[in-house]
Model the fold of this input.
Amino acid sequence: AGRYLPEYRETRKKAGSFMQLCTTPELACEVTLQPLRRFPLDAAILFSDILTIPDAMGLGLYFAEGEGPRFRCPVRNEDRIEALPVPDPEQDLRYVMDAVRLIRRELDGAVPLIGFSGSPWTLATYMVEGGSSKDFRIIKAMLYERPELLDRLLDTVGQAVTLYLNAQIAAGAQAVMLFDTWGGALTPSDYCRFSLKPMERIIRGLTREHEGRPVPVILFTKNGGQWLEAMTDTGADALGLDWTTDLGDARRRVGDQVALQGNLDPSVLYASPPVIREQVAKVLASFGKGNGHVFNLGHGIHPGIDPDHAGAMIEAVHELSVAYHR
Done:
């Protein structure tokens, strides 16, 4: 779902604001289903925002024109961190759970529904910085000067994420994904302590079977290719890859321990359909024959993409992937 679809833009206009779109279950359901009406996709992805958790913690999320998400009450000292509540998903984030239940009902088994959350580190960057950041100067100062304080913040956020994802699973999400958008901004040792370890604790605490079926967990760190082996050890079932990692090399490194998801550069969709088809073929050939590959973009779809170009990608995947799978 997203701004590249005219039907999304119409629904967003009807909602009046992005937050209203996220917090109205009927509208979130509508936006979730829109891509499936247009394209033969293999799964639905819950429409929501990663910042719902810190908003439910009382940080006051709002969206400033031209600035993206902002928080009125950032968390930057010990007192604020100690006072942070862990939200009850069925009370404080009920609109998300209601959306999950509604989407499952509307899908009626046609395709599975994937839920998601931001990772503790990624959420903490927004909570401490007060919004998006180019250099993460405030949270990195905390990391180096008060690492134990950052550990406590990440622990609280991690508890909230675990409850949130388990509530999504109970409401009907059939797989869940952890988005670690900013883990790649850390040094290798800091990534392992402040990003990967909190995610591993979450994964170990998730419901892994529901309604008699396994619930796969997908872990994605943007620019995280150097840590694939460590990510594999978290207990995740699949790793999402961005386009900066060679898919074939990733497969050789992790073997069949996890599935791999990705990893077409989203900017390829600005090119013509014949070029898109060529690039899809390259991704499929990079992974090679056999199961364990979920074709996906390496990150989110850009707002200016022509929907027909997304359709060309999907058509190419369906046509060309047959030769690679048993």
